Amino acid sequence: MSDTAQSIWANAGEATAPARVRDYVDLLKPRVMSLVVFTGLVGVVIAPTHIHPFAAFLAVLAIALGSGAAGCINMWYERDLDARMTRTANRPLPAGRVAPDDALGLGVLLSIFSVLLMALATNFVAAALLTAAILFYVFIYTIWLKRRTPQNIVIGGAAGAFPPMIGWAAATGDVSAVGLSLFLLIFLWTPPHFWALALYRSDDYRRAGVPMLPVVAGPRETKKQMLLYTLVLLPVSLVPTLLGAVGWLYGAVALVLGVGFIAHAVAVWRAPDDRRGHGTARRMFKYSLLYLAVSFAALPLDHLLGGLVGR
Fold first, then answer.
1. Which CATH number is 15's domain given?
2. Which of 186, 206, 225, 199 is nearest to 278 (CA)?
3. What distances in angstroms separate CA 118 from CA 58, 66, 75, 96, 126, one per listed residue?
């Protein structure tokens, strides 16, 4: 480990520089939050019942704050791991710009506030689901699974799959088959998405001691699992159409995107298992982001067009 890395790791337990507002924003993982907000909003929009726009806004805000709270506590708990990884060493905690106690306090306060806001603005079903998502991410994924099993992403991915189901529940007050299908879409998308990243960042995870699948089982097994998940994801992505929640505009988009995802997984499978194949894994990771964004954008678009033509 370099002297710089040792210094960053040593400072992971205390703040050594004045914190900026941006540092506290970074603790909330804003890029992850933006995806959570988007998928949660889609759940609200495509729900079959009417919800007042202000209540919908508060519901999405609660989802965003809950996501940020979970991310903040995750950064507090994983500050030692972050200090060992090149990709995360400059985060506010390992870099010493925010004190750990401040990060933990912010995360706990936002968790409580987000759940109360959801309960008051919408209903207790949505609030209960938001509570479950936060607790699952913090205790099941971050504290229990992340450092213990290569299935951390598979099981822990459930936390990131909650938002559209929460949005649906905020509007309807229940959890339906459609809400569960949106949950499954993200749940099955998560492993190939993160394993693509882990393939070309495996040295970082190995150095940090995180048992990601490429580190524990090797690239060949990882690639096989990625291909299997993309194959299963394709029919699951069509379920919202088959249930009648949206039409075949979304279905066509999901079909095309799913075939593209499988094609990327096949390309990764055929690529060399060394650094020469990292470019293919990187392209699949980028495509996976496009896949989820376009899939969830197609859902409300199809829903809106269906309403206009009287589906």
1. 1.10.357.140
2. 199
3. 7, 10, 24, 33, 7
Q: Are 34 and 79 part of one and the same domain?
A: yes
d(CA 98, CA 114): 22
Amino acid letter for position 22: R
Last residue of a domain, one of 174, 198, 217: 174
Distance CA 261, CA 150 (A): 22
By the 10 Å C-beta count (0-12 exposed, 13-18 middle, 19+ buried), 194 is classed as: buried
160: its two tokens: 């990131």
- Shared domain check, 136 and 238: no
R_g over Cα of the chain: 20
Sign of CA dihedral 178, 183, 186, 188: negative
Q: How far apart are CA 182 and CA 159, in angstroms?
A: 13
The residue out of 174, 204, 238 marking a domain boundary is 174
Q: pTM for the whole thing?
A: 0.89
Which token pair is 168? 């649906």
User: Cβ distance 167 to 44 under 8 Å?
Assistant: yes
Range of the domain at 151: 1-174
Domain count, the chain: 2
- The tens-digit pLDDT sequence of the chain (311 residues) is 444 344 434 444 555 556 688 999 999 999 899 999 999 999 999 999 889 999 999 999 999 999 999 999 999 999 998 998 888 889 999 999 999 999 999 999 999 999 999 999 999 999 999 999 999 999 999 999 888 888 888 888 899 999 999 999 999 999 999 999 999 999 999 999 999 999 999 888 888 888 999 999 999 999 999 999 999 999 999 999 999 999 999 999 999 999 999 999 999 999 998 888 889 999 999 999 999 999 999 999 999 887 565 45
